[in-house]
Each structure stands twice: as structure tokens, then as C-alpha cells.
Amino acid sequence: MSFFTDLAHQYIDGEWKAGSGSWDIIDFNPYDGEKLASITVATADEVDQAYRAAERAQRDWAETNPYTRRAVFERALRIIEDREEEIADAIVAELGGTRLKAAFELHLTKEFLREAVHLALRPEGRVLPSPDEGKENRLYRVPVGVVGVISPFNFPFLLSIKSVAPALALGNAVVLKPHQNAPVLGGSLVAKVFEEAGLPAGLLNVVITDIAEIGDAFLENTVPSVISFTGSDRVGRHVATVCASHFKRSILEMGGNSALIVLDDADVDYAVDAAVFSRFVHQGQVCMAANRILVDRSVLAEFTEKFVDKVASLKVGDPADPATHIGPLINSSQADAVTAVVEQAVAAGAKALLHGRTDGNLVAPSVLTELPDDSPVLTQEIFGPVALLLPFDGEDEAVRIANDTPYGLSGAVHTGDTERGVRIAKRVRTGMIHVNDGTVHDEAIVPFGGEKNSGLGRLNGESTVDAFTTQKWISVQHGRSRFPF
Question: Are 207 and 181 in contact (CB under 8 A)?
Fold first, then answer.
């Protein structure tokens, strides 16, 4: 497809070029195996070139009138709106995303670009009093300088722009490293949009590569002050460790094992709809997905019957078909891993109410229940279409089960009593939780992030300003200070 081959390049200092590494990343369609593009990886030296270009360009950009900066994001938004159908086709092809998923990702991407337009004008300074006579304390909000962004494969266009756009809007420069399974949507397409929107050369650079080629060069480089990472907790732990050892700030959005709690007074039909979407959107490859569905025993039989019936009705197949609900997982490794999770859980005593078959990268939904208390699957993130149904007796047990995980990203509580739901939500140790809704939500002005192994820091709105700027204290003595010697 020419869309992919045209963008199969590195983007460094405003130039599209081939990488000079010793091997190629092959971009495949996960549904039919079609080769979309071949991209020679960037080397550690090219990563350094990208960072140096960003460092040079950022100085003038930080001094650019924020109204001028704002116009770039207005144009980028129009470009995406004009090419929405083409980008949606690319989401289907490169990610195996369904038409519904493509529309969902594009909607959120546009929302975050609209917020970036406003972020350019958001930083505000303060004047603080001083105990010293004649002294004035000025507190400035200034860009951090250069930001390194590492984006994932599941929502790469959205999650790249979610960090790239605000970092740029706030006066920084960016080097972006997309996931090797989404090099175009997560990387070069983002660069193309901003290039056409008039972003000056050097401010956004894209390096398509892998640690097998560059090691920790992306993290250890002396130029970036902040690394924004979205991905697994295993990799995120390493990112945090390297950043800390080099005195860099890290913003980490990692995995989840979210619980959707259905209380005894819940609207069961509505809870079923919320649970099915929360678990199976984009084949379950969503960090906020409801891995665990916790159901009060008094409504367990009704909920289970309706939940299993609805899951069984989901269509698995070609993501290009608008009727498809479940497309392929991103690659064969993910498909094999999810299949193995189900097989191991069943072998260890779990009951499969649905046992989905695997055909290539297509993994049909599974629903497991009666899991032993010590089942490893209860505490891990399952990045695929597998739901765990867990009964509980009373609120206290629901909270205990929900908190029995090393993760804490999202969650939901369903109840006929809103304030009861809020009381329980407060007891669940998670960064985000929703009463009478699904677990998969992201809004451009609301702080987004997790607790425990699900991440460090927050993005969106004012949290993004905190993430990509720093505070600088400048004092002015209008009189004369007295010194003791």
C-alpha cells in the first residue's frame, strides 16, 4: 500500500531519510499478513542526531508567540479531519482495528488536538510575597526543553499525539519512537501531519528502531529532560530505572487489570453492555479493559446468562467489515500468549463458559469462571479477548477482590444508588474509576493515570502542563538586602 511505503522512513531534522541500521522492521497487516512496508532501523547515532536537532530547534520555538504556536495545531486538526477516512483505513490495516475502533481512536485524537490548541496559551506565572522588604518573587512556568516519547501499538496515533501535541504546544521539542508493530500510525504519520501543518523543522523527529539496535540510547541521551512512556509495566519499570539514574523525569502509563463491579441493585442489562464493551473493545488490547467482571452473587445467574449470550454474538473476523466486533491481535506472539493463558487457566481448574478458538491472529472471546483463588490469571493483565467472571458476597468482598492486583489503572461500579457507587469507588485503589459506566475512558481535560504498577504521573489538562513544563523562580530585589558579612 503506497500509504505505508510513502511513510516508511525516519524523520530527522525536517528530512525524510532511510535508517542506517543493519536490519529492517517489517510492517505487517495482522489480519491477512500482507507486508505493508519495510523500514531500515535507526541507529543510536541517528537517535542522537534527532535529539540534537530537537535541542537546536527548541530554543527559538520556546520564544515563539504562543498564538503562533497555536495555529500549527489548528492546521493539524484540519488535516486529520480532511483525511479521516484514509487514516481510518490505515488503522484497520496496520493495527487490525475494527471500523468502530478506528472511529473511536480518531475521535479522541481530534479531542486531544483541540486541547493542544488551548494548551499553547495555558502556562501562567505567579508573583509570590517575600518576608524580605523590597523583594518580589516571580514564578515562571517554562518548557522542559526536549521530550522523548515512546508510544505503544494498540492506539498509536492517539497515544503518540496525546504526548507529542501538548509537549510541542507548551514550547518543547520532541523525539518520538513508535512501537515496531505500529511504525507508521505511531510515528511517521504523526510527523507528516505536523510537517504539513507548518511545524518548523527539527521540533518533531521520529526514529523507528528497537532496543536490539540502540539499547538504552533513547533513554540515556543527555538531551531530553522528560521521557513519556506508554506500554507494559515490565518495560516501564526499566524506563523508570534508567531515567532516575540519569535524573530525568518519567511519565509512565502502563498496564491494568481493571475490575468492573456489579452490585446487587445494578441495572443488569446495562451492566452487561458496559462489561462487554469494556472487555472486548479492540480485542481487549486496551490498558483500561475490564479484565475482571465482579458480580454480586444475588444477580450472578442473570448477569452470567446475559453476558455470555452477548459475548457469543460478537462477530470475529475481517476488521475491514463494519459488522466485525473482534479483529486480530497485533501479532502471532500476542495470539499465542492469550491462547496459552486460557489453556493454562482451564487446566488449573477454571470453567470455560466460552472457549474461543484461535485461527492465526484471530482469537475468539473466552469467558472463564470458577477460577481458583491462587490462579495467576487473576492478578495479571490479559491483553486479549478473555473475560474473568468472579462472584462476591457484599461490598467488602468486592473491594477486596478489586484491590487484589498489582495494578490500579481504571475500574467501574454499577449500582442503582449513585452515592453508594461513589463510596465503593473511593475504596478501590485505582487512578480512575467510573460509576455506572464502562472502564475505557479518556477525556482531554481530566487527569489520566494509574496507581501501583499502572504508572507514575498524570497526563491531560493541567496535569499535562505539569508534565511538560517546569517552574522557575526569579526574585527581584527592588531595595537593598542586608547581608550578615
Answer: no
Contact 352, 342 (CB under 8 A): yes
Rounded CA separation 95/30 (Å): 7
- The verdict on whether 253 is a catalytic residue reads yes
Other Cβ atoms less than 10 A from the Cβ of 251: the count is 26
C-alpha cell at 256: 491494568
Q: How much is the pLDDT for 435? A: 98
Beta bridge partners of 459: 448
pLDDT at position 122, please? Answer: 87
Report the relative pairing of strands 10-12 and 15-17 from DSSP bridges.
antiparallel
Cβ neighbours of residue 258 closer than 8 Å, sequence gap 6 or more: 278, 288, 289, 290, 291, 292, 407, 409, 410, 411, 412, 430, 439
Is the predicted pLDDT of residue 73 greater than 70, yes or no? yes
Helix, strand, coil share (%) of the chain residues, nearest 5? 40, 20, 35
Q: Evaluate if pTM is beyond 0.85.
A: yes
Which amino acid would we find at residue 354? L
The answer on pLDDT for 413 being more than 80 is yes
Among 287, 305, 419, 451, the one annotated catalytic: 287
Residue 412 one-letter amino acid: A
The angle that helices 418-427 and 395-403 make with each other, rounded to 10 degrees, is 40
Phi and psi angles of residue 138, each rounded to the nearest 5 degrees, phi first: -105, 130
Model pLDDT for residues 113-129, shown as the tens digit of each residue: 999 999 999 888 999 99
Alpha helices in 1-96 (DSSP H): 2-5, 44-63, 66-82, 84-95
CA atoms within 13 A on the CB side of 412: 28
The answer to whether 93 and 36 have CB atoms below 8 angstroms apart is yes
Give 243-276 pLDDT, tens digit per residue: 999 999 999 999 999 999 999 999 999 999 999 9
Active site residue 243: no
Whether 188 contacts 27, CB under 8 Å: no
What residues contact 337, with CB distance under 8 A and at least 6 apart?
A: 383, 384
Neighbours of 222 (CB within 10 A): 10
Q: Pick the catalytic residue: 213, 253, 381, 395?
A: 253
Half-sphere exposure of 159 (CA within 13 A, CB side): 26
pLDDT band at 1 (very low <50, low <70, confident <90, very high): low
**Of 1, 4, 334, which Cα lies nearest the Cα of 183?**
4
Res 95: pLDDT: 98
User: Is the torsion defined by CA of 47, 114, 97, 332 positive or negative?
Assistant: positive
How far is it, in rounded angstroms, from Cα 77 to Cα 2? 23
**pLDDT at site 424:** 98
